[in-house]
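Quick check before the chapter quiz. The format below is the same one you will see on the exam, so make sure you can read both the input and the output lines.
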Amino acid sequence: MLFSNINGIHKKKIVLFTHNNPDGDALGSSLALLFYFRKLKHDVDLISPTEYSEFFRWLPGTDNIIVFSKYTQSIIKKKIINSDYIFFIDFNNLSRINNIRDLFLYSKAKKILIDHHPFPSCFDFMFSDPTASATSILVFRFISDMNNLSKIDKKIATCLYVGLMTDTGFFRFPSMTSETHFIAGKLIEKGIDLNYIYDHLQNKYNENRLKLLSKALKKLKVIKKYRTAYTSIRASDISFYSYKQGDTEGIITYGLGIKNIVFSVFFFEEKEKNPIKISFRSKGNFDVNIFARKHFRGGGHKNASGGTSEKSLSESIEYFLRIIPNYYKNLCFPFDITSVT
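Here is the expected output.
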């Protein structure tokens, strides 16, 4: 029923939502859907709760993104109320879109999830697969299920390919499957410019980003006993630079690159009164999704997750250091993290 309605001749009002601080997969998959639905002649809006990184502004279609913080709530509310379908892309819980979530109480639109994170909330229609290496894969499947792969053009393919690349670590993460490579091949057949994409995704460091990276590396601490590394950035650290959204991206990977380290954590105090943002990365069997959910109101994937803390930066780190000893066996031996009490 859903496919026939969206594929039909009647124009629909569709709103696409991505999550706070959207990454490459969130932007790539949602922009691909924006282009795709407009090809079907639907009226489509793409809304991001927060600003996105300058690093991705080269992506086709970013000038179409409505950033919630730049508009009045009444404008967004009107779009939600008048919509026929609302898509939630690359997240599966409304807590990921902050103050926008209450606006959906006024909408009778069908709510559709397209996401690859575990433990999804319930929506009217759900395209959810935690085994998929990126939400962009699910968008490709969605278009395929509508028998419309022929409508994937160079712009759509570029967006989906960026989603695949960024959420698989340039096709290196354990989540990679043969399907990922198969879809990447199909996207390449659409004539995407691989050199252009790789150039923009690899040349991501400007002077300010390097200075912030330098500060983070100076603060890097290694706990050899627990095979863990962590670092942090304070609000005062970024006050000296022209900080832009995304300038701290990639800092967490340096800790995980240290020999014998299996768990890397990055604490980020973007503003003194805001919650502390925390990123978690791991190797092997240590499940940072469960760790983030249990201790930092977060979640994500087994080897890549995020969370928050209402404590100060120093208090958040102190709390983290107190609980880490509970995970000694999980970090040093192939035990199941769910056994920790």
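If your answer matched, good. The chain is about 35% helix and 15% strand.
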